[in-house]
Amino acid sequence: HLMDIDGKIHPSVEFLGKLGVEKKKYLSRALIGIPNPTGDTENCPGTTIEISASGTAVVAGNKYGNLDTVLHKETGILVGSIKALSNNICKLLEDPILAKRLGNRGEQFVRERYDYYSVVNEWEYLFNCLENNNVNIKGTILKPNMVTSGSSATTQSSRIPIHNYQCRYQW
C-alpha cells in the first residue's frame, strides 16, 4: 500500500527513526503519524501525544496507553490488526480532509488533557486529598472547575482552600 508500482517505498513515506527537536518540522507537515503500530509496549505513549500535539492524525494499535492518548475516530484511529493498520493508513492518505480533522482535534485534545499546568493541578489536588484523609474510595475525585480565557486556563479552586472541597477518589 505504501509502495509505488515498482515495489519501492512511495516518495511521500519517510521512516525517520529516532529524532530530537528536529522532529517538530516533520510532524507538523505530516498528514498522519504511526507510533509503535501494535501498541504492545506503550503505557503512556509520548510519541502519540507529540504527534497529536503537532496537529497530525494518529493511527495506532488499540492497546494500553494508546487507549488514553488517542480518541478513536476523533483524534486518530485505533486498530486491532496489521491489515486494519494498513487499511486505515491508506484511508487517511486518500482522505486528507478527514486526516486534518483528526489532527486538528488531536492538537486540541492534547492541549486540554496533557497541558502541564492542568496535569500538575490534578496531581496536587489528589495529593492534598490524600494528605488530608479526604478520600472516599467508592467515589470519584471532584476535579477543580477549569476556567479558560483565551489560550490560558486557570482553576477556580486554586483561589479557595482545598479543605473546602469534598474529595473522593475511585480506584
Task: Describe this entry's structure for a reader.
- The chain has 171 residues and is α/β, with parallel strands linked by helices.
- The chain has helices spanning 23-29, 46-53, 66-69, 82-94, 96-114, 116-131; strands spanning 32-33, 57-61, 76-79, 146-149, 152-155.
- The longest helix is centred in the middle third of the chain and has 19 residues, at 96-114.
- The chain is elongated and about 65 Å long.
- The protein starts with 22 loop residues before the first helix and ends in a 16-residue tail after the last strand.
- Residues 137-171 have low confidence and may be disordered.
Q: What is the helix fraction of residues, given as a range?
A: 25-40%
Strand runs, count: 5
Distance from N terminus to C terminus (CA atoms, Å) equals 44 Å
Radius of gyration: 20 Å
Shape: elongated
One letter per element, helices H and strands E, the order comes to: HEHEHEHHHEE
- Uncertain segments are 137-171
* Beta-strand share of residues: 5-15%
Structure summarized in a few sentences:
By secondary structure, the chain is an alpha/beta fold.
Topology:
Blueprint: H1 23-29, E1 32-33, H2 46-53, E2 57-61, H3 66-69, E3 76-79, H4 82-94, H5 96-114, H6 116-131, E4 146-149, E5 152-155
Parallel strand pairs: 1-2, 2-3
Antiparallel strand pairs: 4-5
Helix pairs in contact: 2-5
